[in-house]
Amino acid sequence: MKPHCGLVLEGGAMRGLFTAGIIDVMMQHDIWPHAVVGVSAGAAFGCNYKSRQPGRAIRYNKQYARDPRYSGLRSLLSTGDYFNAQFAYHTLPLTLDVFDNDAFNENPMKFIAVCTNVETGKAVYKQLDTANEQTYDWIRASASMPLVSRIVELEGMKLLDGGVADSIPLPYLESQGYRHNVVILTQPKGYQKTHNRLMPLMRLSLRNYPQMIEALDRRHIMYNEQLRYVEEAEHQGRCLVIRPEEKIPIGHISHNAAQMQAVYDMGLQTGKKYIEKIQSFYEN
Prior knowledge:
Elements: E1 5-9, H1 16-28, E2 35-39, H2 41-50, H3 56-63, H4 73-79, H5 85-96, H6 101-106, E3 110-117, E4 122-127, H7 133-142, E5 152-154, E6 157-161, H8 170-175, E7 180-184, H9 199-205, H10 210-217, H11 219-235, E8 239-242, H12 257-283
Parallel strand pairs: 1-2, 1-7, 2-3, 7-8
Antiparallel strand pairs: 3-4, 3-6, 5-6
């Protein structure tokens, strides 16, 4: 593998199971980029790459799909988080489907989670070298969607979903010296994001954070500019982009295990289709 090889994992909530399928294929073929940057679901599922646990993301999502302790309106109303913070990010990885802290710590791959600072509206890039409960909270912060999540406070910052400020952090990874990057997107070619129709609720919910509201209001513009950047980088041969061939058939939130498996299987099939291209891109 060339030096300075990276991997960018876009978010997309449950669409991230498509990404999980691809990175599981990469693990099975012993492909280990030097750095992975994950946004939202890209961080929540991508951390299993550094811990060398293929299959973990789809396994626990299916097993607890309808468990009210894991996610649902009951959790949202009682805790302020649709995905229960204590159960999903502490009980589950510590006791029910154990996250391999030792493997995460021993893997030299850099793993960076992207969050958004709600007080500035800017991206925060947190390199996670050692797995512990604070690490789980950084991943939670990256995946904490506005309206259905409480603000996460870490290291003096108030944080939410990283995709608000930097949905596809290819420029960030390039700025860190990684010049051979695979980018996994969760929308098909030609997709363009539109203005968020829930902005009135966002404005009310985050009324004390004007910079965050502005970032949310402009997110579709930022995202579409990032798509253009990625496509130009792809055209120049600076990155290899992997996208679903069609719209992924799942919403941001799902409790349907069969639907989750179908999305994951799409990722597996796409990963197998691209695996030789990935190997060649990283090696040649």
